[in-house]
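Problem 3 from the worked examples.
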Amino acid sequence: MYFGRFSLALFLFLASAAASTAQNKYDAFWGQYMASSLIAQTCKGVTTYSGHDAVSIGVARDSLREQRLLRILYYGNRKNLTRLGHITLTMNGVSTDDPQKLCRYARKIARTDDDIGRFLRAD
């Protein structure tokens, strides 16, 4: 009986950890894309891909599920998605509060293999 309870507890823990890890992948993806969107709104000469193009990148590069990405794109909480973008920028040492630094950073990473730069184009 003890082994059964232990197995059940272990299974529930691992299932919870796997779900948490999967959600973290989607949060990271949307944080990166929203960071690129915040950059494009702030910096002249820097653009970002459309939401649909971003979904294609997420499916191809990050092996994320297209339907889940589209659901978040269309029905996700915009305030939360924007918050993820700000967090991602902060983690990279930049902020929308300092547009000059942000735009220098954007031009440096645009069209690179950087997590945010993969969504950016510098004109």
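Problem 4, a separate protein:
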Amino acid sequence: MRRDVAYDARQLSTGDTSVFFASVHEWGNYPGSGAATERGEGPGLGFTLNCPLPGGSDGPAVLTALTAVLRPAAERFRPQLVLVSAGFDSHRDDPLGSFRLEDSDYEFAEKPPGKPRF
């Protein structure tokens, strides 16, 4: 799972059904990639999940995407290993993006409140 401003995972989504890639990211910073309609290619179709959010999104918006969209998809895939790339360019003080995450918002990538780990 990736949660940050930058995005490009097309190399992961082509033909590999053993990898499920999910991304919660700021929409529009890198045109041409990360649309919700991009779901993988060939045999890997359906093994990519994009949750693009608008600039200005805060912790509660990202948490909603993680719990309402990403969690059910991950539970269907049943991963043996979860790698998290929590890009700090989504922090409110980072000049690269316009997400508004606070320091405390990053802990929900590890374990959303009241929920077991992925």
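Solution to problem 4. Strands lie at 2-4, 21-26, 48-53. Residues 1-8 have pLDDT under 50 and may be disordered.
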